[in-house]
Design a protein that fits this description.
heterotrimer; A mainly alpha (318); B alpha+beta (244); C alpha/beta (952); B: 244 residues; alpha+beta; 3-stranded mixed beta sheet; 11 strands; elongated; C: 952 residues; alpha/beta; 8-stranded mixed beta sheet; 6-stranded mixed barrel; globular; binds ligand MGD; binds iron/sulfur cluster; binds molybdenum atom
């Protein structure tokens, strides 16, 4: 599939933004009676909404008719994209209310505050799940139609959100708690494992959609494309015919592992014996590296995905 | 709207005879002509330039199948199959993609489509094409604006591609009616679905190439002796009373 | 259901347009009937006319893209005069009056001095009745249409043999045939009828056998594909004939009735009339009548002509029935299926089986129709008997240098099976059959080409012996293309592919003006394009162009436009009147002669004029007889439509046969009808005359048909048309080559005439012939074949018409670049993969292109789609268009002149009998390119940039 930058930016940025929002909502759920730190709240929520907004705006750049984007909220009964749209707004609204409560709602720990935290958390998770399901629900793209796709969208959202949060904490407080460090490491490790499993499973899965199956001509023998319908690439070929060389993909996967998982993990681990002096730098490095990493991961998510329609255009299988 | 309507009794669709199609592209260009210059144009890009391409609702592939004496070349037109349970409809966030309750035709409403392209991702058959210039999705309409068009003669109330096809390889009709000519044709010729595994239940059917015509004509290899006397025998035979 | 979720309301009954007009398609020469819908003054939709006899409502891929041709950005907009050097593309826009005055001035000067210095050649047009007449009235013999580089082999072989031809003058009886063989056809002129017919044959379960090195299109859907080695079909057919003779499966009754099989032929003893037909005192052919046991007039009825034997003639010489000579030849071991296998690559067993299948279909599945008919001897036949075997063949046969004889062999096969013009067989399209050959001879004999004098007759015709040749006392050609010379004695359509080469080399003489119409001779219709471009643009020592003046009419910015001095821009096919006349290439079917018109459905929005109207205007300015009245005023001031209605070729016979006579009720012959065009329009832009049932079959011997055909001027006599199994005119040329008679070939030509002018077609491998010619410079023929191991041919894509497709926004999306298709196993041996760049090398040059590996091709053959490659900047395309950067032509590799032979003479690359261009004799070598070459095609020529200085 064609790796459209608007969609990559959308899923990465809003994923991290919602992930961050999720951690902030957990903070609320677990909060005690003391007032929530205003400045930190402003910064962290601000960051989260900036990320979400950038993502959502970017997603409309992918639309042919962005001015009609509002219509996308109507078909939540059947469409994961519609559901995602609805949930994104719900999460935005609930999260917004929660943020206001955080900053102006006085002491934490109130039922209302906790309830909004819970609501925010739930809607964020559902939103991320919906985003994942847009892809995971498509039987036409084997690499997406996989049980780990939606969990990975949620997991990577939470992971990248956590890395961003750590950095915010580093900036705000100069320190990240040991628990937070362990939590972050667990998230990274979990996502890493999930992604590794995902990659190995899609690599191993049989490419069952052959040109013989697609044309229904298999009973007559092996099928090969003779002439394409048009000599220059058309929409289907441009959108679905993206080809990434195996070697190149392997290199990019390694880069993704290093930048998305390894570097943030190491930076985070280093926080454990850091005497605060390098916290800002380390957490920031984790964010930058993770940002690059999630971009590569998302790019690969699209670029490596084969669409069955391409077998009509001569791909042997998908 | 993207909730699929209850299955219609009438299932309009096309049947394409792979045994007869010569790959002439008439169905592709006539489709482009009828649909492309009508209410919702099909755009063309870089018309005089290095990358001429455009939006087409019907495309004709050609394949080689098998090898040696068993080998054959098959021309393969491909357009929307007007599936009975297509995800291209259900994934649509806006309701622009819909299946008509009356006859099962799958359409896109160009006035509400946001051009998210998700429906094209959901179609295994590559049957939807995005129109970059207009920003909306296009697809075969089964010429819904022809088949009921009362300004046409009854025999012209068929899709443009069927109307044009010079070999008669394209058939149009109600595949929901088992007694229709087209359903009988499908039954007689073992018409098949493309990628039935997806469960989209295509309405359009393809008729497979027929087995190569094998005659049982006995081939008698003349013996050397026969060959030597053949001419003499022949002239004896030909030297008869023939009346002018 | 909430309203917002309901299905949108659709208006399902929008009319296609606000106006509809019937006319004739011209996206190719098939001439289908179309209905053009207009909306707000623009063309909105074109559909097939269901009532039209050619297409019965269907359209092809090109026809349905006609709108984009009409609105093509490549259309020319105004008359132009060259400003810069030739080929630079710099032009000055001029007025029509200036353009026509200039043309009249140039041509007038030639006509006053030496009319043959005008060479007028036309390409894709369908108005040869007019253009030929213009040349005749002008007085130049140097006229031809494109037939010489197209399919004259088919036309000539058919007309000389049975008075019809595969090329447009006949068709299989699609409704009734039970076995159909297709030789060398990718698309055909009858594009839609052939497609529709194949669809019907498949629906009826009729066996279709396709003989073709390539398995695409029609050949892909055939029941049996025979992947023959190019140029060897003659051997396949001879093998089939061998088998049919051996198994005694031929129609002897048919042969004695309708053919010259019983005609007695003098022994081939080297005398002056050796091998000629023995005739009686009145010139009637003789046969031996077994009833009276005496020689008899072979054309008489109720005799029992012998087909076998040696008979003594009155003067004591001996003669044998031509049939015996023929049977002797093909029964010989030389034409056994095994020999055929060796030449063609088709197993002998397959050849035997197909022969058996043919015999089975012809004789076991005989048809009887309850249609009584009367033959030319007045005998009534209660039933019409049919042998339901039919065949069609085109350029896979004709575009080889042995095409004439191969095509004759196919006709022999049809005739031996008794399947010409019978139910289920191959049927004439009226006005055919014509006599074998048609009686008109080419005009332009020595002394008849004179200033200010029309030619004595039409420039094109049919030679019947050396006396009809257009040669001077030394045996040298009189025509610029050397048609009807010893180079090409039966050149029924001229040799358009040689005009530029010959004119530039002043061989046989220099011309002043080359006048071309609708032929892209600067590109895809020429051989050896690099040389041709030089010929068109080089000057001699005095700075004059080798071809001093070139006038050209095109409708689009083609490669040829850039190489001309004066451009007469034509309209598109939707903007003009045209006439598809029975005097030219008929659109008839076997049951009904038919003709049609084009009417302007939309006014031009540019300063362009229909070429025919321009030619008529030019004729009047030149005051050519027939173009002006007695007072010198234009005879057809209304232009082409005026001419279509009012011109009479013979009294009562004009361009259109329908709606003649004052009230439009006469057919064929009748006074001009001022309302004729309106009546055509009211009838859907065509007219069709249905033959009576008793006229429909055996037209060559059918009294009712022949009498009627004579009465309306199709024929000048109603004599039966006798099939020429044995082609006596060829023997006459042979005898001349052997030193007999007053008109003899130059010594350089004797061997070749002797070898190829066989009255009973003998097989000479076309590829081998070209390698032998090449061998003169390279050693043995076998060495040449080793050096160039592949035959290289082209096919027409069904959706492109020659170079026209690339000026069409839709069609060029389908094919903007081409590949060289090569058999997988051979490619792998050469280390090639899909899309690899290769050098394709022939004896005269090399071309770079990309390959595609396929299975469905004869392994000794490579091929590509024709005319996809374009010169950068032509057809209003950007210089980096794929047509120019990756598309390629094989034409660069095809020599138009063969290497020098003994005596230093260079023959053209043509069939030695007809002069048909031998495009498909090409042999090439394939080699993978080194990486840095693998980017774009080669050769690339200077990009064309058409610059038009505006008229102020
Ligand atoms: N779409 C379209 N239609 C056209 C045209 C066009 O450009 N486009 N051009 C028109 C014109 S001008 C013409 S002349 C006609 C020509 O119509 P065709 O005769 O169909 O033309 P070609 O494409 O030259 O096809 C020649 C076929 O012969 C095969 N062939 C080559 N060598 C041999 C051989 O030695 N033996 C056998 N058995 N087969 C051989 C080739 O593989 C090819 O399939 O088409 C007309 N119709
Ligand atoms: N390698 C190879 N070469 C071949 C062949 C082959 O099979 N292989 N086939 C040969 C054969 S059979 C033929 S017939 C020739 C065909 O070759 P050409 O006769 O050159 O045919 P085209 O390229 O179709 O068109 C000639 C010109 O007609 C112009 N034209 C189009 N419409 C109109 C119009 O309405 N009015 C006017 N005035 N001009 C118009 C086009 O712009 C173009 O420049 O090619 C020959 N060349
Ligand atoms: S129009 Fe008919 S024959 Fe031509 S490509 Fe389409 S289906 Fe095949
Ligand atoms: S073919 Fe594709 S676009 Fe058409 S209904 Fe089926 S899934 Fe939808
Ligand atoms: S592109 Fe249009 S029709 Fe397709 S899913 Fe998106 S909104 Fe629906
Ligand atoms: S039915 Fe109409 S829209 Fe569909 S492919 Fe045919 S012509 Fe095109
Ligand atoms: S075959 Fe096609 S292009 Fe040729 S006249 Fe007919 S519709 Fe037009
Ligand atoms: Mo031609």
């Amino acid at each position: 599939m064609h790796p459209a930058y608007s969609v990559i930016v959308f899923t990465c940025a809003s994923g991290a933004g919602y992930g961050l929002l999720a951690w902030l909502s957990i903070a609320g759920i677990l909060s005690g009676g003391s007032a929530q730190p205003f400045a930190f709240g402003l910064a962290a929520f601000g960051l989260s909404f900036v990320l979400i907004t950038v993502g959502l705006v970017s997603s409309t750049a992918h639309l042919g008719r962005p001015e009609r984007a509002w219509r996308a909220f109507s078909q939540w009964r059947t469409s994961w994209l519609s559901r995602e749209g609805v949930m994104a707004i719900v999460a935005y609204a609930v999260g917004g209310a929660y943020a206001l409560l955080w900053m102006f709602g006085g002491a934490g720990g109130s039922t209302l505050f906790r309830a909004f935290g819970l609501l925010t958390f739930t809607s964020v998770i559902v939103t991320l799940w919906c985003t994942g399901m847009i892809y995971a629900s498509l039987p036409t793209i084997r690499a997406w139609n996989h049980w780990l796709v939606a969990p990975l969208y949620v997991g990577l959202g939470l992971m990248t959100g956590r890395v961003v949060l750590n950095s915010a904490l580093g900036f705000g407080y100069g320190a990240v708690s040991t628990n937070a460090v362990w939590l972050t490491l667990a998230l990274i490790l979990g996502a890493w494992i999930a992604k590794t499993v995902y990659w190995s499973q899609i690599d191993d899965a049989a490419r069952v959609w052959t040109i013989e199956a697609a044309t229904g001509l298999g009973s007559f023998g092996k099928v090969r494309s003779l002439d394409p319908p048009h000599t220059q690439p058309n929409f289907i070929m441009l959108e679905m015919g993206y080809d990434v060389a195996r070697k190149h993909a392997e290199r990019l996967r390694a880069a993704a592992v290093i930048t998305l998982f390894l570097v943030p993990a190491v930076c985070t681990m280093l926080l454990l014996n850091d005497g605060a002096s390098l916290t800002v730098l380390l957490t920031l490095a984790a964010v930058v590296s993770g940002g690059i990493g999630i971009g590569i991961e998302r790019w690969l998510f699209f670029a490596e995905a084969e669409h069955v329609a391409m077998v009509y255009y001569g791909r042997d299988a998908a | 709207m993207t909730t699929l309507p209850p299955p219609s009794a009438k299932k309009l669709g096309l049947v394409i005879d792979l045994d007869t199609c010569v790959g002439c592209q008439a169905c592709a260009t006539s489709c482009k002509e009828w649909n492309g210059l009508g209410a919702a144009p099909l755009s063309d890009y870089d018309v005089q330039g290095a990358d001429p391409h455009g939006t087409w609702l019907n495309r004709v592939h050609s394949y080689e199948v098998g090898e040696g004496v068993e080998g054959r070349t098959v021309h393969f037109p491909r357009s929307c199959l007007h599936c009975e349970t297509p995800a291209c409809v259900t994934v649509c966030p806006t309701g622009a993609s819909y299946k008509r309750a009356e006859d099962g035709i799958v359409l896109v409403n160009p006035d509400t489509c946001i051009g998210c392209k998700l429906c094209s991702w959901a179609c295994p058959y590559g049957a939807r094409e995005y129109d970059y210039a207009v920003g909306v999705m296009k697809k075969c309409t089964l010429c819904v604006d022809r088949i009921y068009n009362v300004t046409f003669e009854p025999e012209d109330q068929v899709p443009a591609c069927v109307r044009a096809c010079p070999t008669g390889a394209r058939h149009f009709g109600d595949l929901g009616d088992e007694t229709s000519a087209i359903s009988k044709l499908v039954a007689a010729r073992d018409g098949f679905d493309l990628l039935p595994e997806f469960g989209y239940k295509p309405v359009n059917k393809y008729l497979p190439p027929r087995p190569k015509h094998q005659t049982e004509m006995p081939v008698i290899q003349p013996s050397d002796a026969e060959a030597a006397t053949a001419a003499a025998k022949f002239f004896a035979w030909a030297d008869k009373m023939l009346s002018r | 259901m909430p309203a917002s979720l309901a299905e949108p309301a659709l208006d399902l009954s929008v009319a296609a347009g606000d106006e509809v007009k019937c006319t004739t398609c011209y996206m190719c020469a098939c001439r289908c009937g179309i209905k053009v819908h207009l909306k707000n003054g623009r063309v909105r939709y074109i559909e097939g006319n269901r009532d039209h006899p050619v297409n019965l409502g269907v359209l092809c891929g090109k026809g349905a893209a006609g709108i984009m041709q009409h609105y093509s950005p490549a259309r020319l907009t105004a008359p132009m005069k060259r400003l810069g050097p030739r080929g630079s593309g710099k032009f000055e826009e001029i007025s029509w009056d200036e353009a026509l005055s200039l043309a009249a001035e140039w041509l007038g000067e030639i006509r006053r001095t030496d009319p043959k210095k005008l060479a007028f050649f036309t390409g894709r047009d369908q108005s040869q009745a007019l253009t030929g007449w213009f040349a005749q009235q002008f007085g130049t013999p140097n006229f031809a249409a494109h037939g010489g580089f197209c399919s004259v082999n088919m036309a000539a072989a058919g007309l000389y043999t049975f008075g019809g031809s595969f090329w447009e003058f006949g068709e299989p009886d699609w409704e009734r045939t039970r076995y159909f063989m297709l030789f060398g056809v990718a698309e055909d002129h009858a594009s839609n009828p052939l497609k529709a017919a194949l669809g019907k044959l498949k629906a009826r379960g009729v066996k279709v056998v396709a003989v073709n090195p390539i398995r695409t299109g029609y050949n892909a859907i055939a029941d049996e594909w025979i992947g023959i080695r190019p140029g060897t079909d003659g051997m396949l057919v001879a093998g089939l004939i061998h088998e049919l003779l051996r198994t005694q499966h031929i129609d002897l009754d048919y042969l004695v009735r309708y053919t010259n099989a019983p005609w007695l032929v003098f022994e081939d003893d080297g005398s002056a009339d050796a091998g000629l037909i023995a005739r009686d005192g009145r010139g009637r052919p003789l046969c031996f009548d077994k009833k009276s046991n005496a020689l008899a007039d072979a054309t008489m009825p109720e005799i029992a002509p012998a087909l076998v034997g040696t008979f003594k003639l009155a003067d004591g010489r001996t003669a044998r029935p031509s049939f015996q000579l023929m049977a002797d030849r093909y029964l010989g071991a030389e034409y056994s299926p095994e020999k055929a296998e060796a030449a063609t690559g088709i197993p002998a067993a397959t050849i035997r089986r197909i022969a058996a299948e043919l015999a089975h279909a012809a004789f076991e599945q005989q048809i009887q129709l309850d249609i009584p008919w009367i033959d030319t001897h007045g005998r009534r036949h209660d039933k019409t008997i049919g042998r339901p075997v039919s065949m069609h063949a085109m350029r896979g046969i004709s575009a080889h240098s042995n095409g004439f004889q191969t095509c004759r062999l196919i006709h022999l096969l049809q005739i031996l099976l008794g399947s010409i013009d019978c139910p289920g067989g191959f049927r004439y399209k009226p006005p055919f059959p014509r006599p074998t050959p048609p009686p008109n001879r080419p005009a332009g004999k020595p002394g008849t080409v004179k200033p200010m004098t029309p030619l004595g007759g039409a420039p094109l015709g049919f030679t019947q012996g050396p006396e009809d040749l257009l040669v001077n006392a030394k045996g040298e050609p009189l025509r610029i293309d050397k048609a009807y010379s010893w180079d090409a004695p039966l050149a029924a359509h001229g040799l358009m592919h040689m005009v530029i080469t010959n004119a530039a080399n002043a061989d046989p003489y220099r011309i002043e003006t080359l006048f071309l119409y609708m032929a892209n001779m600067g590109w895809n219709s020429s051989m050896n394009i690099p040389a041709v471009l030089r010929y068109l643009t080089e000057t001699d020592a005095n700075g004059t162009y080798r071809i001093p003046r070139i006038i050209y009419s095109d409708a689009y910015a083609s490669e040829m436009v850039a190489c001309a001095d004066l451009i007469l821009p034509d309209t598109t096919y939707l903007e003009r009147w045209d006439c598809i006349s029975l005097l030219d290439r008929p659109i008839s079917d076997a049951d009904a002669p038919a003709d049609s018109i084009r009417q302007p459905v939309i006014e031009p929005d540019r300063n362009v004029r229909s070429f025919q109207t321009v030619l008529i205007d030019l004729g009047a300015r030149l005051k050519l007889p027939g173009f002006v009245d007695a007072g010198g005023a234009p005879k057809y001031p209304g232009g082409y439509p005026d001419y279509i209605v009012n011109h009479e070729r013979a009294p009562g016979i004009g361009p259109l046969a329908g709606f003649r006579g004052e009230r439009g009720t006469a057919y064929g012959k009748g006074a001009a009808n001022p309302d004729q065009l309106n009546q055509y329009i009211a009838n859907g832009a065509f007219h069709r005359h249905h033959l009576d049932d008793n006229q429909r079959f055996y037209k060559h011997a059918n009294k009712a048909y022949l009498d009627w055909a004579k009465s309306i001027g199709f024929l000048t006599t109603s004599d039966p048309i006798i099939f020429q199994l044995y082609l006596e005119p060829l023997q006459k040329f042979r005898n001349a080559a052997r030193g007999h008679g007053p008109i003899q070939p130059p010594d350089s030509h004797r061997v070749r005439i002797e070898r190829y002018f066989d009255p009973i077609p003998s097989f000479h491998c076309a590829q081998r012939r070209s390698s032998e010619a090449e061998a003169a410079v390279r050693g043995a023929a076998a060495q040449v074949e080793e050096a160039f191991p592949f035959c290289a041919i082209t096919q027409r894509p069904m959706h492109m018409y020659h170079s026209w497709g690339s000026q069409n926004a839709w069609l060029r999306q389908i094919t903007a670049e081409n590949r060289l298709y090569i058999h997988r196993t051979r490619a792998e041996k050469l280390g090639l993969q899909d899309d690899d760049w290769v050098w394709i090398t022939s004896a005269i040059g090399r071309v770079r292109g990309q390959v595609r590996l396929v299975d469905g091709v004869n392994p000794d053959t490579v091929w590509t789609w024709n005319a996809i490659g374009r010169r950068a900047g032509s057809a209003a395309l950007d210089a980096d268009a794929p047509e120019a950067t990756r598309g390629f032509l094989l034409n660069h590799l095809i020599a138009e002149l063969m290497p020098e032979r003994e005596g230093g003479y260079r023959f053209s690359n043509s069939d030695p009998i007809t002069g048909q261009a031998a495009w498909y004799d090409l042999r090439v070598a394939i080699k993978k390119c080194v990486p840095h070459e693998a980017r774009e095609t080669w050769p690339r020529f200077e990009p064309l940039r058409l610059q038009q200085t505006r008229l102020t």
